[in-house]
């Protein structure tokens, strides 16, 4: 017993704290802890912490409802815990009986027993009431398993310990391992119904999260098949957009919004806990990074020490390196995953704020691409870069300070040398950063301008093509792109310079440090630095360089992110639309629906008896488009009550009808007076129908509940029934962006159907009947607006602005406006239709109530120009073809991108960058040789060693700067212009069907996100791939040089890396493509919401659209979030591989101790500090390159696979004066909208002589528009012959034909730009000719007055406004009414030189007076032209030379109007009689 006690007390010192035993003879030699240390630190401390925390956790779980059902797992847990607790009782009994125990033995045994009891309680509660495995239990079990291994080893080695304690402790360890496995089992399949929705990430435990196992199912799915959005698991509930929106909205509403960086502070405050929690693992990463320098120093000293000292220190170093590098892998994964989630949350918050703000903007402030750019570019850039400033800065500064301290320990005060270099670099970087913001802002504004222009043009391609402006629009857009790239060069120069500055500290800090040390040593006469000092200093420099580089990078990037925040904040602080209406408090008629919620931000008013019978009350109101503009509608006073079922507003073009209607919706500024309405929710139909890219049913139902019988009655009333029968999918047919597959009449009727279906108390409709032919209009009016119409049945009061004056007798109230916007007459038709009144001058013919004849019932559908029923038959495929290149990539894309970059330029750039990196490794080896020379007592050659080292550093800096500048300033802008040119050319040459079958948001996404990837992400990825590849090769070379035996490990490591990247890339590549694709619906929804904002607000659907935006935002976040998460999976795997490599190197070092050069080993270990970074960089940036190359793939596919509307054999060079006469000949023409589609013109033959005026008429869907489209070469002529001046049109490119013909489209086409650019797109007219054309249509004085008012000039000064000043004014479409915009387009037609004029229902949306004015201008100015005109107002065709009547694609009549009218039963005669009173 005495011998045992002697061993216990004297030799081992187990009753002392230690931590290590006193004598190497204890427990067979080797390192071990004392029992007191193990029981105190490895047992009592974790047990005490667990018991305390378990009590708090248990109390928090007691009151919660059960979330998981009972299962076999829960019983197994309890059984294991019971066995474990029993073993702790056994240990307590054994501890109490032995005399060889420390003062902590009993306490350790008691606490272990209490821990077992606590585990039983907490495990039961956690299993039943928590959705995920317990973090606390798992953390305790995993940590104590490691601790217990040490304790078990000690007990088995102790001579004084009986086998009983060791055996029980071993059994306890085994049970604890089983408990750890059981407690880590996930419970998603066991969740009860209310908690079934939780994501896989949220239900994962600490083990699954630490090892990123929760991503395995996604990775395997991506490896096996092509992924779709539906295959992605749901993202963490913390990233839920609705929840985030509420958080940021509350914070933003409570803060001082005008304060500088208020939005930044609001975002940070709302995510403060997430940010603080993310800092915890980041500081652990810093600690582990700094500890590597001490380990490397110990490793070098170990090699330099006497081998007879034994290998225990070597084994300890192996364990220490393993702990540090594995710990680094886990903490880095933890920190980066939290960062990803935090920044995804910030992106969700910002996009939510932008969308919600957009819904409150005044209509005059809506800038489509401005808000879109903020959402797609600024918010994205913040989410990608702001964490560098927000999260990384403090830990990086801490790492910087610690690394300087390590340098001080090694080299003394000269450690300030790299700090001086860093301060200089930071100063220069900060100076640059202050200039980067403005330059980036200019670049983004240029980008925004291009996107705005592109969006407008792509959304109006039908008009662009008909007007022959495709080439000019291509030139304009490409010119804007080149200007954008020119502007970006100023930013890129600073960016390239800053990248060079970022690398300067890592390049020159070492030079300054070692140079200063050498000089100081020489002055003081001290010895030069040793190998140990040199290697430790290099390691410290490596640790120092990383935060320096990151801080220098974070400064400009942070400024850039702050600039994005500023742009968003300025947008959020724009003035919101103020609803200035009051809500009438009244008793509703029995059949009238009431509003559910009162108006917000307005007060209820007390109403007199007159108000109680009003649905709308306006008192002395003035309406203007802004508070600074003159009133458009003046002194309006009217009352519209429930008995006024139909109120009709009439007046000349530009009198303010649309302004008045939007004033009733509070969409125009009310400068004076009172507007009161009975409900905040009003059905509204804009003059240009708003159609979403959905099915016809979705457009009609909107956000209302579906009512089958009501829906069917609406379909019949709006004459859509026959249209739907013609469509393959009926009302499920997708209509395309902006309803491109529908005609103007169909869109108008869908809009009317939506207004009826909503059953609002009031409906406001702006000239919705103008696009309908006479038969359809008659049907719709009687079924919808008539005495037995659906509006009357639903109790809806209707306010209708119209040019169809024949409807005035049906109105209960008429408001007549004059050209000054004043109500000159108000009352019923019978009251106002007296000689001398405005209404009387309209000469409305009273007609009897006619019964709809069979023609109405059998009317053909109002198809666009037949393309609806033909193109719509080619519906989107139910399943897209599986594209395996999404998984494995396509090297053709790299060749395409390489060609865009320039092969020679690419080679030069790679040579410069690789050469620069080579000098990094040479410099470190040179320092080692220098230190070895000092250790070996070599001669003092400081100048020699320092000079060569300086040369290496200088060459590295010069080559890096040249490579970066060459890429960013020369190569990228050139490739960007090339790629954009390829896309815009393909878009402008594409047939019209492409734009009807593709969402505008998808097309715009190519010009926004795809180009952003090509401009920034891809070049950055290329730089980093080459940079990290060169760095990795240096690491490998240095490691092999230090320990040649390590070469054996590289083949399996390379094999592992190959399979990892292959496994990883198949999923990551797809996720990047899905990320791009998932943004398109969000972008489309954004654009659609902006286009229909007035309608959405009128119907009261803002909340519904905000919710839809949240759904699409969540959908777009999923691929992006999962892509970043699997990137962290990759980093974790690579970090573990590096940890394994480090352990192998240290193992070989211990085994080959006497054969290893300490200097080379040190350099190798220093380089291995960066190996994880290099490997991660290679695979990660290669992945980014691979996945972002999807943008290039999309660009390539669009440029190469988009069909060209012209055939190769067609010419683009007819004679210069063609067409010189304007003679058309149709000879048995058959025409179709594409190969395999039915003919829309069938055997049509007629001749139009030069100078003749020919009208084309027929029911909607008869082939009228198809005839003009055939002339314009926008549909295919499959048989027969169509000639113009004896030239077969099929031999000439369609774009050339359209450029040689004048066309005036049904919808006015005006795009962003100046008045001059809009009226003279080709720039071929002088100011006097333009002014003359505008004077002829009566608009010059209007535009001149507008410019004079803007210049704060009086009316008498208008003559002082020059032509140039007026024409160089930005085009303001809101200033012109719909009719005035059509007059503007007529002025544009006057300036184009041709002998042929095509008119596509140009007067359908203007009043009779403007119609007459346009007809007069056309007759006078185009009297020598051949005119082909489609018209609904057949009276305007009476003086034409010929009329062509079409029916179902056949020519059924052709002749002079008078001759055709003589046949009372003829087609034209019947059509004319139906429309004669219109």
Automatic annotation (TrEMBL):
Transmembrane residue ranges: 41-60, 72-94, 106-123, 275-295, 315-337, 385-405, 411-433, 496-519, 539-562, 904-927, 947-971, 1021-1040, 1046-1065, 1129-1152
Membrane topology, as annotated, equals: Multi-pass membrane protein
- Could you name the domain of life of the organism this protein comes from? Eukaryota
Does the record carry Coiled coil as a key word? yes
Its localization reads: Membrane
Alphabetized, the UniProt keywords read: ATP-binding, Coiled coil, Glycoprotein, Membrane, Nucleotide-binding, Transmembrane, Transmembrane helix, Transport
Q: Which residues form a coiled coil?
A: 839-884
Domain ABC transmembrane type-1: from-to ranges: 283-556, 908-1187
Region entry Disordered, spans: 582-605
Domain ABC transporter: start-end pairs: 616-845, 1224-1473
| Claim: Transmembrane is one of the keywords in the record | yes
Q: By what name is this protein known? A: Multidrug resistance-associated protein
Recall the taxonomic lineage recorded for the source organism: Eukaryota, Fungi, Dikarya, Ascomycota, Pezizomycotina
């Amino acid at each position: 017993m005495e011998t045992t006690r002697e061993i216990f007390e004297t030799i081992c010192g187990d009753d002392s704290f230690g931590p290590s035993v006193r004598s190497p003879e204890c427990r067979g030699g080797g390192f071990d802890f004392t029992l007191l240390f193990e029981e105190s630190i490895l047992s009592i401390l974790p047990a005490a912490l667990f018991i305390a925390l378990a009590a708090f956790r248990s109390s928090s779980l007691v009151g919660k409802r059960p979330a998981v059902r009972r299962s076999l797992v829960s019983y197994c847990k309890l059984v294991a815990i019971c066995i474990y607790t029993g073993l702790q009782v056994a240990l307590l009994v054994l501890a109490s009986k032995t005399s060889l125990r420390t003062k902590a033995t009993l306490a350790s045994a008691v606490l272990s027993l209490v821990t077992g009891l606590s585990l039983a309680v907490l495990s039961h509660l956690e299993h039943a009431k928590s959705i995920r495995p317990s973090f606390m239990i798992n953390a305790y079990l995993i940590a104590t398993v490691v601790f217990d291994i040490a304790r078990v080893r000690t007990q088995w080695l102790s001579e004084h310990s009986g086998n009983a304690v060791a055996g029980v402790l071993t059994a306890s360890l085994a049970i604890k391992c089983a408990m750890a496995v059981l407690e880590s089992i996930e419970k998603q399949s066991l969740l009860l119904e209310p908690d079934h929705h939780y994501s896989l990430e949220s239900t994962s435990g600490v083990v699954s999260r630490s090892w990123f196992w929760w991503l395995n199912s996604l990775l395997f799915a991506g490896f096996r098949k092509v992924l779709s959005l539906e295959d992605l698991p749901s993202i963490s509930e913390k990233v839920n957009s609705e929840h985030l929106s509420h958080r940021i909205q509350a914070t933003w509403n409570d803060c001082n919004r005008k304060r500088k960086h208020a939005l930044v502070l609001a975002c940070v405050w709302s995510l403060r806990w997430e940010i603080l929690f993310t800092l915890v693992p980041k500081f652990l990463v810093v600690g582990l990074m700094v500890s590597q320098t001490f380990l490397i120093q110990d490793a070098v000293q170990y090699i330099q020490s006497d081998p007879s000292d034994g290998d225990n220190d070597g084994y300890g170093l192996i364990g220490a390196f393993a702990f540090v590098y594995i710990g680094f892998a886990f903490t880095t994964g933890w920190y980066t995953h939290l960062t990803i989630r935090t920044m995804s949350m910030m992106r969700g918050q910002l996009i939510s704020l932008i969308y919600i703000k957009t819904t409150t903007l005044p209509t005059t402030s809506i800038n489509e691409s401005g808000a879109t750019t903020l959402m797609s570019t600024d918010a994205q850039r913040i989410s990608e870069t702001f964490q560098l400033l927000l999260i990384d800065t403090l830990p990086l500064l801490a790492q910087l300070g610690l690394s300087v301290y390590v340098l001080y320990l090694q080299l003394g005060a000269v450690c300030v040398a790299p700090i001086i270099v860093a301060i200089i670099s930071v100063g220069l970087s900060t100076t640059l950063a202050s200039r980067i913001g403005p330059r980036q802002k200019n670049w983004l504004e240029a980008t925004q301008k291009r996107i705005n222009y592109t969006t407008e043009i792509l959304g109006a391609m039908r008009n662009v093509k008909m007007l022959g402006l495709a080439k000019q629009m291509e030139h304009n857009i490409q010119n804007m792109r080149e200007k954008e790239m020119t502007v970006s060069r100023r930013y890129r120069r600073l960016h390239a310079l800053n990248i060079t500055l970022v690398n300067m500290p890592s390049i020159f800090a070492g030079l300054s440090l070692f140079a200063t040390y050498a000089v100081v040593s020489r002055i003081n006469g001290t010895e030069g630095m040793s190998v140990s000092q040199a290697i430790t200093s290099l390691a410290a420099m490596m640790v120092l360089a990383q935060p320096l580089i990151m801080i220098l990078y974070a400064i400009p990037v942070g400024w850039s992110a702050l600039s994005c925040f500023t742009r968003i904040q300025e947008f959020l602080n724009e003035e919101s639309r103020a609803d200035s209406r009051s809500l009438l408090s009244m008793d509703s008629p029995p059949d009238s629906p009431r509003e559910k919620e009162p108006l917000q931000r307005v007060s209820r008013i007390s109403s007199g008896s007159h108000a109680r019978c009003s649905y709308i009350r306006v008192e002395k109101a003035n309406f203007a488009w802004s508070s600074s503009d003159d009133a458009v509608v003046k002194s309006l006073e009217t009352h519209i009550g429930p008995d006024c079922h139909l109120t009709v507003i009439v007046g000349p073009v530009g009198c303010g009808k649309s302004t008045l209607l939007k004033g009733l919706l509070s969409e125009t500024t009310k400068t004076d007076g009172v507007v009161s309405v009975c409900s905040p929710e009003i059905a509204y139909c804009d003059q240009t129908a708003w159609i979403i890219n959905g099915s016809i049913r979705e457009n009609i139902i909107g956000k209302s509940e579906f009512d089958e019988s009501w829906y069917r009655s609406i379909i019949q009333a709006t004459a859509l029934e026959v249209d739907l029968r013609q469509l393959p999918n009926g009302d499920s047919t997708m209509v395309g962006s902006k309803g491109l597959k529908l005609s103007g009449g169909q869109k108008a009727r869908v809009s009317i159907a939506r207004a009826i279906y909503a059953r609002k108390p009031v409906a406001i409709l702006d000239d919705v009947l103008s696009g309908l032919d006479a038969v359809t209009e008659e049907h719709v009016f009687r079924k919808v607006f008539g005495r037995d119409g659906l509006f009357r049945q639903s109790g809806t009061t209707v306010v209708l602005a119209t040019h169809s004056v024949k409807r005035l007798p049906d109105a209960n109230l008429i408001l007549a406006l004059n050209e000054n916007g004043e109500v000159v007459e108000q009352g019923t038709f019978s009251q106002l239709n007296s000689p001398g009144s405005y209404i009387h001058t309209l000469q409305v013919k009273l007609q009897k109530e006619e019964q709809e004849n069979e023609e109405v019932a059998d009317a053909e559908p109002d198809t666009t120009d037949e393309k609806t029923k033909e193109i719509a038959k080619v519906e989107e495929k139910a399943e897209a073809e599986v594209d395996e290149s999404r998984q494995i990539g396509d090297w053709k894309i790299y060749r395409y991108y390489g060609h865009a970059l320039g092969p020679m330029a690419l080679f030069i750039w790679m040579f410069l960058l690789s050469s620069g990196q080579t000098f990094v490794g040479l410099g470190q080896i040179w320092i080692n040789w220098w230190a070895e020379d000092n250790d070996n007592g070599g001669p003092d050659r400081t100048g020699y060693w320092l000079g060569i080292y300086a040369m290496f550093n200088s060459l590295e800096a010069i080559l890096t700067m040249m490579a970066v500048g060459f890429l960013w300033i020369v190569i990228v802008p050139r490739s960007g212009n090339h790629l954009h040119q390829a896309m815009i050319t393909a878009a402008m040459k594409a047939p019209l069907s492409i734009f009807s079958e593709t969402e505008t948001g998808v097309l715009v996404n190519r010009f926004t996100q795809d180009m952003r990837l090509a401009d920034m992400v891809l070049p950055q990825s290329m730089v980093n791939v080459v940079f990290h590849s060169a760095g990795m090769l240096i690491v490998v070379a240095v490691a092999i040089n230090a320990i040649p035996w390590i070469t054996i490990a590289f083949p399996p490591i390379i094999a592992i890396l190959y399979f990892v990247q292959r496994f990883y890339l198949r999923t990551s590549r797809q996720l990047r493509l899905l990320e791009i694709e998932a943004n398109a619906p969000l972008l489309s929804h954004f654009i659609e919401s902006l286009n229909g904002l007035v309608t959405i607000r009128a119907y009261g659907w803002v909340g519904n659209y905000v919710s839809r935006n949240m759904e699409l935002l969540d959908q777009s976040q999923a691929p992006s979030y999962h892509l970043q998460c699997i990137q962290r999976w990759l980093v974790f795997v690579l970090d573990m591989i590096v940890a394994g490599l480090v352990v192998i190197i240290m193992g070989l070092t211990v085994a080959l101790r006497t054969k290893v050069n300490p200097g080379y080993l040190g350099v190798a270990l220093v380089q291995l500090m960066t190996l994880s970074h290099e490997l991660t960089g290679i695979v990660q940036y290669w992945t980014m390159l691979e996945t972002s190359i999807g943008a290039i793939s999309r660009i390539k596919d669009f440029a190469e696979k988009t069909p060209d509307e012209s055939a190769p054999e067609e010419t683009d060079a007819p004679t210069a004066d063609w067409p010189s006469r304007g003679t058309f000949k149709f000879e048995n023409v058959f025409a179709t909208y594409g190969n395999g589609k039915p003919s829309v013109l069938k055997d049509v033959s007629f001749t139009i002589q030069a100078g003749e005026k020919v009208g084309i008429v027929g029911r909607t869907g008869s082939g009228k528009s198809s005839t003009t489209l055939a002339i314009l070469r926008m549909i295919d002529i499959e048989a027969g012959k169509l000639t113009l001046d004896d030239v077969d049109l099929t031999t000439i490119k369609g774009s050339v034909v359209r450029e040689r013909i004048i066309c005036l489209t049904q919808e006015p086409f005006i795009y962003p730009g100046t008045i001059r650019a809009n009226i003279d797109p080709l720039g071929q007219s002088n100011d006097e000719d333009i002014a003359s054309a505008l004077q002829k249509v009566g608009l010059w004085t209007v535009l001149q007055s507008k410019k004079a008012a803007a210049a704060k000039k009086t009316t008498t000064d208008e003559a002082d406004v020059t032509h140039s000043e007026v024409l160089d004014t930005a085009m303001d479409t809101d200033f012109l009414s719909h009719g005035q915009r059509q007059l503007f387009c007529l002025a544009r037609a006057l300036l184009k030189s041709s002998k042929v004029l095509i008119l596509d229902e140009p007067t359908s949306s203007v009043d009779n007076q403007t119609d007459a004015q346009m007809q007069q201008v056309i007759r006078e100015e185009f009297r020598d032209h051949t005119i082909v005109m489609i018209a609904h107002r057949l009276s305007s065709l009476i003086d034409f030379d010929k009329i062509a009547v079409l029916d179902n694609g056949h020519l059924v009549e052709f002749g002079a109007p008078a001759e055709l009218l003589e046949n009372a039963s003829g087609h034209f005669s019947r059509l004319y009689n139906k429309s004669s009173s219109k």
